[in-house]
Amino acid sequence: MANNQPINREMAREILRYFVRNPQAADSLEGVARWRLMDEVIRRKLDETEAALEWLVAEGYLTTSISPGGTTTFRLNPKPTKDIRQFLAESSAWHKENSQ
Question: Is the model's pTM score more than 0.70?
Answer without folding.
Answer: no
